[in-house]
Each structure stands twice: as C-alpha cells, then as structure tokens.
Amino acid sequence: MPQSRQLHLGAFMRPVSLHTGAWRYPGAWPDANFNFAHLKYFVQRLESACFDAFFMADHLAVLNMPINALKRSQTPTSFEPFTLLSALSVVTERIGLVATASTTFDEPYHIARRFASLDHLSGGRAGWNLVTTSNPDAALNFGRDDHMEHDERYRRAREFYDVVRGLWDSWDDDAFVRDTQSGLFFDPDKLHVLDHKGPYLSVRGPLNIARPIQGRPVVVQAGSSEAGKQIAAETADAVFTAQSTLAAGKRFYADVKGRLDRLGRPRDHLKILPGAFIVVGDSREQAQEKRAFLDTFVHDDSGIASLSIALGHDVSGFDLDGPLPEIPETNASQSARQRVLELARDKGLTIRQLAQRVGGYSGLEMVGTPADIADQMEQWLVEEGSDGFNVMFPYLPAGLDDVVDKVVPELQRRGLFRRAYTGTTLRDHLGLPRPDNPFFSKAVRA
Amino acid sequence: MPQSRQLHLGAFMRPVSLHTGAWRYPGAWPDANFNFAHLKYFVQRLESACFDAFFMADHLAVLNMPINALKRSQTPTSFEPFTLLSALSVVTERIGLVATASTTFDEPYHIARRFASLDHLSGGRAGWNLVTTSNPDAALNFGRDDHMEHDERYRRAREFYDVVRGLWDSWDDDAFVRDTQSGLFFDPDKLHVLDHKGPYLSVRGPLNIARPIQGRPVVVQAGSSEAGKQIAAETADAVFTAQSTLAAGKRFYADVKGRLDRLGRPRDHLKILPGAFIVVGDSREQAQEKRAFLDTFVHDDSGIASLSIALGHDVSGFDLDGPLPEIPETNASQSARQRVLELARDKGLTIRQLAQRVGGYSGLEMVGTPADIADQMEQWLVEEGSDGFNVMFPYLPAGLDDVVDKVVPELQRRGLFRRAYTGTTLRDHLGLPRPDNPFFSKAVRA
Ligand SMILES: Cc1cc2nc3c(=O)[nH]c(=O)nc-3n(C[C@H](O)[C@H](O)[C@H](O)COP(=O)(O)O)c2cc1C
Ligand SMILES: Cc1cc2nc3c(=O)[nH]c(=O)nc-3n(C[C@H](O)[C@H](O)[C@H](O)COP(=O)(O)O)c2cc1C
C-alpha cells in the first residue's frame, strides 16, 4: 500500500545544541547563543530544506544544577525567544517560528499580543509552545517561594489558553475598514470584548492588535502527564513529546489520538511529533563513532552531577571506568531512574560513559546513514508512532547541515517529505485549517 | 559664543502617526499598523538622517474612549514593541531602538531579559521607556479592578528598576570564556545571584542572558509628576516630556538638572527631550495650511468626545461653528482644562476647530520652513530648554520625509546635528558612558 501521509519536521533548537558537550565538538560555534548571524544561517538552511518549523525551547531560570556542573554547559543563557524569532522572521519567508512561553509565569494579555504580533510580522508563521514551566527554580524569579503545584499549573494553563484564544478573536478578520472618505477606521460591530472572569484570571479585553493572520497561531504542547495529554487533546495543534522507543511512541500516539476521538476532534488536527536526536554518517559505523565522540566532550563534573540527579544517588565516589553497582531505591523520579538503569544494562556502559550519556542527551536517537534514518522515520510514520519529528541536532552547524543535505533529500526521494512549501503559513505546512472567529461566525452575523 | 552642544533627536513613533486624523491625510499609509515594509521604510529613512533613536510608544489596552470616537482613530491596534523593534534591528545598523514597557503590569525578570536580548540582537541599541502606564483601563486586562494608586505605582517602579538593573549585572562582561580545551564554558566567579527581596518584588536571579552590550540598555522616563521627575533624576538616561512652551521647558529643564546636581550625577548624564510635533512647508503659510488641513480630518465624533473629556463637560449640544461659551468648573484634570481654554482663546478657534485640535494633537509644535524649525530648536538648545527633541510626525510618510530631507540638513549646516554616527550604540549617540558592573568592579575583584 503506498504511503500517502507525509512527515512533518520541526527543528528543536538551542543555539549551540541541547547536548551539553556540543560546544566543544570540532567545528562547533560555541558563541551561537548570542550570535545572530549563526542563527540566521541555521534557520535559512532549515527553510531551504522545507522544514515545517524552527522551534525555540525556553526556560525562565539558569538551570538548577550544582554550579560545578553548570559551568561546563552552554545552556544557561541565550537570546529570548520573541526577540530572536521576530528578528529571524525578517530573514525567512516560509518556515514556521515557534516560541515557548509559560502559562505559569506570564499574563495572557501579553502572550496573546506577542504571538499575534509575531504572526503579523511573519505573515502567519507563529506558533506557541504552551508550557507550564518545568524548571521549579523559575518560581524564585517571579516572586514565589515554590513552584505552583502540578495539577494547579495545568488548571491555570487551561484557563489561560481559553483567555488567549478569546483575545485573539477580539477583532473580526475584516474589522479594519479604513475608509478615508467617511472617516471610519474600524467597524465597531466587529469588535468583541471578552470580559473573562475565571478562577485564575480576570481579563476584560479587547486585545490591542488585529486578529492574527492564521486566525490563531499554532499551539504546541509538550506535557506528558495525564493533565498534559488531556490539555493537548483539547487545545493543541501539535504535540512535542519525548518517546524513547517506537513501542512507547505508538502507545502515546494511540492514547492522544483516542482522546481526540472522544472529544469529537478530527485526528489529523493534532500532529504528534516526538523529539529525535539525529546523527548522520557515511556509514553506520561512522555515525556511531560521531555519537560516541560527542559524548566524550561532556565534562565529568557535568556528567556525574546529571547521573547523580537522575539516580537520586551520589555516584562521584565510584570507579568511573567500572560498571554501575546496585543502587538503592530513592525518592528520585522512578521513570528517570528506570531509564538510566536500562541504558546502563542495554549498552554495557561504564559509569563515565553513562554519565556522559545522561549529561549530554539520552532520549530517542537515530544514528546511521541517511537511508537508516529515513527507514526509521518511515517506520514511525507508517506504524502510527508519530506524524513526524522534532529534530534535535547533535552539534551545529555540521549536524544540521547533515540533516539538510543528506537526510531530507532521502526523505524527499521516498515521497515522505515535501520538496517545496505549498502554502505560506505554519497552519498550511501542518495541514491545519484556519479557524473561524466564533464571535463573528456567519451564523451569528446573519 | 559658538554653540558646542549638539541636538539629540528621537522619533516618537506610532506607525500611522499619533495624530488621529493622519490616516486620512492625502498620501498617508493607513495600514501601517500592520505593515512591516512601511515601518522598515520609516526607520531606514530616520537612520539615514542619523537620528539617535526610534521610539515606540505603548499602551496595554484599547484606548478608553467612547466607541463612537474610537472607531474614527487608527491608534488602538498595532505591532507589539519588542517583536517590532527586534525585526527592525535586522534592517538597521546604528539607530537606537526604544521600547515602552510597564513596571505596573509586567515582571522585572521578563523586562530585564527582553531588553538585554534586544540589546544583543542590535549590537547595543536598546532603550527602555520606563512607564507606570497612563491608561487606567490596562488594569482590567491584568486581573485588577482598578489602576494601582499613583504614588504606589512609582514606588513599585523604583524597586522594579533596581531589580532590572541588578539582573542586567548578573554576569560580568567577560564571564563567558568558552574554553573548549578545559571544558569551562563560563567562570562561576563572574556570576552574581541578586537575591532581591523588597516590598513589591522578590527576585532571585541570575538572569538567563549575558550582560547587555551597553552594560545597561538606555533608560528613558516620561513621568512629569514629582514622583516621575524624581525617579527620572535617580535612574534615567533620558527624559521624554511634554512641554508646550519654551518657558515651561526651561523650568522643567532646570528642575530636573537641579535634581541631578543634588544627587551628585553629572548634568549631561541625563538628556531632556521634549516631544515636538513638526510640520514643514516651503513657506510659513504653506506649513500652517498643512497643519490646519490635517485637523480637518479629525472626525467630529472623535474631536467632540476628546474635547468633552478634556473639559469634563459634554460640548456636543453647542453650535460647533461658534466660539466656546463659559464652561463651569468640574472634576476633570485642571491642567488639561486650562490648556484647552487657553488654546481656544489664543487662537480664536471655533468649537469644531478646537475639538479637532484636541482630538488630533495639541502639545508643543513647530510649524514653518526648515529654517523656522531649526531656529526654534536652536533656541531651545541654547537657552537650556532641552538637549534635543523627540520628534512627532504629523502624517507619514510625507511628514517624516520632510524632516529627514529638509530640517535635518538645515540643522547639520548649522553644526547642531551630526552628519554621521560617530559610535555604534545608543549610549554612544546620546554621549553616555558605558556603566561598569558594580558587582565585579576591579576593586571588588582585587
Ligand atoms: C521535548 C520536550 C520539550 C520541552 N520543552 C520545554 C521548554 O522549552 N520549556 C519548559 O519549560 N518545558 C519544556 N518541556 C517540559 C514540558 O512542558 C512539561 O513540563 C514536561 O514534559 C512534563 O510534563 P508534565 O508536566 O505533563 O508531566 C518540554 C518537554 C518535552 C518533552
Ligand atoms: C511624551 C510622553 C510620552 C508618553 N508615552 C507613554 C507611553 O507610551 N505609554 C504609557 O503608558 N505612558 C506614556 N506616557 C505617560 C507617562 O508615562 C506618565 O504616565 C505621564 O506622563 C504622567 O506622568 P506622571 O504619572 O508622572 O504624573 C507618556 C508621557 C509623555 C509626556
């Protein structure tokens, strides 16, 4: 049976890569956090490969790690997403621009407005990665002693989304008539005052910006808890998820698409895009060597701290070149601990290697020739493990160039990925309809 | 005595002009609120004339006016300042980029970070117009029933500024060593944790962005109350003020510079820039005709509402083509009322003309030939009424082109304004030193 579905590809970006050893990799650009020219290069290359979106992660605190580990890493500081993506909108024409923004530490009026503004600037290419913020230290930067409790975060997030969506619909699409003759700038019948009053938020509106080009910017969700999956099914256009194996991916896919069925939403109105860390070689062996070489750049200080955190047990006293001994159960996250223990066992890693893996990157990865990688992506697509991927690059620019120059052409040859953009907005790329404004639907107006 | 001081010129921008009739003026661009190409044209022309800064006003609510008046005006909606200025930073190289942001309705961590990011993107051209927000309706969009009381707003603003400044100093200028050999990305001794706990704000830090290029982005203040002037003297690098006459300007200038003396700050570390609405003609008569013609585009609905608000008295029942009768005293702002009554008397305006003036623009204006305007600007500079101006354009693009093509060359001929940028940052243009990081001054380190 011919495969008619196509892959969607986002690029999950941190300027220097999210792998904490990447800045030391030969040929890397360690100053990319504050080098606009480098980021321009990345986004333009990705656009030349017809990627759906350029996706900026975001955190509201310098990561919570012992300073001895932190000082080894390029992650704590970089451009703020809105300023960066707005600047990148000027040097691109088609690729979607997705910014992460928090419902826990921001105001819906600001968020609605900024995404609408980015959408206008970019001609309909804005997306919002809606997060409740994973780093609990952020609370300390916003006047709180503790992170808001998990379920409460999600209840606020749900209401926050409703407010943002209502604010985006403040003006009808054709509200601004600008009739110089009569002196009518906008039609007041096409202005809607939200007047929202809820348990967490009270926002009158209207928003001081015209309705976004896309009607509503694309909403992406990355939660994986019950509450996270449910809010995604109810509100999101795309889900970004960490799924380490195809089996886990298929369970997640069936779970979330099943929620859509129960909500009466069409299945293809929510795209599921697991993160995939891609390392390309001319041979499988070369790719694996690159992958192993990259991990050697994770400094012991950083790797040991990460591994100790993941296990809930200080491993710094062990022989780093020996295998991991039995570790007693602790209070640490069970799933993180389990994943690390499996990794140690399956790959036969020493403690140092394990620490470097955990301190660098240890989720889903595809390491091999362009054909190997295309095979895996195709399998995930065909077997309904995903609708595409959010690609993570091991080091930049070379790791990104490899995907653009070698993997994407292979996917295109197989008919799995577009050779040219067919639309202009991020909704177009993702195959999502432009939503009507419910406050001014034709039925209401008639 | 030769005049050695030079003018500083900012452009106080709303995309279609802040005059509410401007969008109807022949040749205007009524869609500029959401047309990036137009804004790019404006900023590039201003840069070609060596303006110090491009300055975006901002409001957090659709203006509080009766809808019947509001619908006549282009002001309620436009791009959000950070997204817009970030985009404009890509198409310019020297001109300063000043965004308005509120201390009442935002968080210092966000504000510090966004200005730092804009400063990095633009190579040191960011400025913050620090406002406590003039439109009370904004409160309703941010979970409050009422605007915070005036003095409390300023107390919060003062603390807010201290936090932002402290966050900007989170990292020393040379904290990021990126030593690939040893694996040290930053020097932990050059990281400062603010740990601020005050009456209004509690913010731990550090900021997740490197120290701004300018050390600290330029801070602009526009308050005119006692509290406003004092916070300006204590914190600001420039003051944007509404002063209708040279006499008032000189009083304001002496007042604020006197505060600097008492604080031990050098007088030239704070530039005072009144707003000036500039209308250029080939002859004085032609300029005055343009000015009058512009006012005819203020719709009666809009003018009458504005005049009634300014007087605290509904004037819609009067004969619009007659003079203003006696108006009983009311609760409205005394200074606004007084200014309107003087305007009616001094210029002998009918009610309609007065309404059009008040509904359009009624502050300091310079209307005449390029030489007339240069004369006035020179007088303000020489007599210490100001250090320059924040120029407002009556209509765009023509009103802006007139200033760039005719007034600036005249100022340059007189040696009152630069012919080329001599520095690269906004601090350079304003003649302000780059501040040290007090947490890492050489004395502390030694
Ligand atoms: C691939 C991926 C990317 C994420 N990116 C961010 C991010 O940029 N910022 C953030 O605060 N949280 C981020 N998160 C965290 C999620 O928003 C969420 O907090 C986390 O997945 C835990 O899910 P849960 O809260 O539903 O249990 C990301 C999560 C995943 C899986
Ligand atoms: C020329 C000028 C421009 C201003 N621009 C803004 C603005 O963009 N946004 C805003 O909220 N307030 C703006 N303001 C208002 C001031 O921030 C301040 O609220 C007002 O001048 C009243 O001063 P006071 O609060 O010290 O009495 C501006 C004021 C002036 C004089």
Short overview:
In chain A, 39% of the residues lie in helices and 14% in strands. With 446 residues, chain A is of the alpha/beta class. Chain A has one domain (8-445): Alpha-Beta Barrel (TIM Barrel), CATH 3.20.20.
Give a description of the structure.
Two copies of one chain form a homodimer. Chain A has an eight-stranded parallel beta barrel with strand order 1-2-3-4-9-10-11-13, surrounded by seven helices. Chain A has a two-stranded antiparallel ribbon with strand order 5-6. In chain A, strands 7-8 form a two-stranded antiparallel sheet. In chain A, strand 7 and strand 8 form a beta hairpin. Chain A contains 15 helices and 13 strands. Chain A has a single domain, classed as Luciferase-like domain (TIM Barrel). In chain A, helix 4 crosses helix 5, helix 9 crosses helix 11 and helix 12 packs across helix 13. Chain A is an alpha/beta fold and 446 residues long. Helix content of chain A is 39%, strand content 14%. The structure holds flavin mononucleotide (2 copies).
SS-based class of chain A: alpha/beta
Distance between the termini of chain A: 47 Å
Mean pLDDT of chain A: 95
Under CATH, the topology of chain A is which?
TIM Barrel
Rg of chain A, please? 23 Å
Give the topology string of chain A: H per helix, E per strand.
EHEHHEHEHEEEEEHEHEHHHHEHEHHH
Number of domains of chain A: 1
Oligomer: homodimer
**Cofactors, ions, other ligands:** flavin mononucleotide
What is the CATH level 1 assignment of chain A?
A: Alpha Beta
Helicity range of chain A: 25-40%
Domain Luciferase-like (chains A, B): 28-385
Keywords (chains A, B): Flavoprotein, FMN, Monooxygenase, Oxidoreductase
GO molecular function (chains A, B): monooxygenase activity; oxidoreductase activity, acting on paired donors, with incorporation or reduction of molecular oxygen
Pfam families (chains A, B): Bac_luciferase
